[in-house]
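Readers of this paper often ask what the protein records in our data store actually look like. The remainder of this section carries one protein's record, kept here as part of the documentation.

:::
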Amino acid sequence: MKNKLARLRELSRTNLARAAFTVVGATTGSSAFADAATQTAITDAYTSGSSDLSVAITGLIGLVALMVGVGMIISMLRKG
């Protein structure tokens, strides 16, 4: 049983190392072939996503503040 577990552990380490090498090689190689139009499109998409995220976070904070305020008002009405 120990032999099988050791063999399985070694196989998983080997496969993990191969997968990590493949991912690093693919990401390194893909950026080297990007032209100016692709870089511009990526930058524009990043900027758009960043502004969308800012709007979503602002809305979520506003909603939480509103709910806290409503909760405080309801708790004051129940006490009084």
